[in-house]
Amino acid sequence: MSSFPRALPIDTATGLLIGVAQVLSPHCDARPPGVRPELIVIHGISLPPGEFGGPWIDRLFTGNIPADAPAALLDVAHLRVSAHVLVRRDGCLRQYVGFARRAWHAGRSQYRGREACNDFSIGIELEGTDHTPYTEAQYESLAALVSGLLAAYPSLSTQHITGHSDIAPGRKTDPGPAFDWARWRATLAGRLA
């Protein structure tokens, strides 16, 4: 039996998860008028590359990577990027951007002929790499998060959940072959049943 709730509660007035740590990012803005979230994009991230834990993802998404950071981070220190939520290796969540706002996670992207995916998507980062298996806790936590999103935002559906690699092919590879889509979709389906 999973220790994660069936669906995570969301305050739709603020777009914030209830009971989840928040480190709000300045790297976001308003969605275009009348645009609601219609797509969920799954990403993978580790900072420095291949390392887990530590403060660096928070620092990247808030624009606070210091000049004396590990050398591997200096290439990304200038980026103005964010995601709505990060799922750590232990399944713990951290929210950076409210779901009603546009997080800067997808970059140049296209989904089913529609460009600028940041406008209409929710970006969820999994702490991991393309080739490091994601954890059971991450699959469970991600399923609880997406279940909550589907309940809170009728504009979202299970038919419109994809990877960063699918909306930016040739430019991005995450969440990579290590992410077991079938396993995760089965976990999500169990929560939605």
Summary tags:
two-stranded antiparallel ribbon, 23% helix, 193 residues, alpha/beta, Lysozyme-like, 12 strands
Largest sheet, in brief, is: 6 strands, mixed
Q: Look at the structure and name the CATH superfamily.
A: Peptidoglycan recognition protein-like
How do the strands line up in the largest sheet? 3-7-6-11-5-12
CATH architecture: 3-Layer(aba) Sandwich
Q: Order of helices and strands, N to C?
A: EEEEEHHEEEEEEHEHH
Computed Rg:
16 Å
Please, how many domains?
Answer: 1
CATH topology: Lysozyme-like
Q: What's the number of extended β-strand segments? A: 12
For the record, what CATH class applies? Alpha Beta
Mean residue pLDDT:
96
Provide the helix percentage.
10-25%
- As residue ranges, the low-confidence spans are none
- Large-scale geometry: globular
Distance between the termini: 15 Å
Could you please describe the fold and organization of this structure?
With 193 residues, the chain is an alpha/beta fold. The protein has a single domain (10-192), classed as Lysozyme-like (3-Layer(aba) Sandwich). Helix content is 23%, strand content 20%. The protein contains five helices and twelve strands. The strands form four sheets. A six-stranded mixed sheet has the order 3-7-6-11-5-12. It has a two-stranded antiparallel ribbon with strand order 1-2. Strands 4-8 form a two-stranded antiparallel sheet.
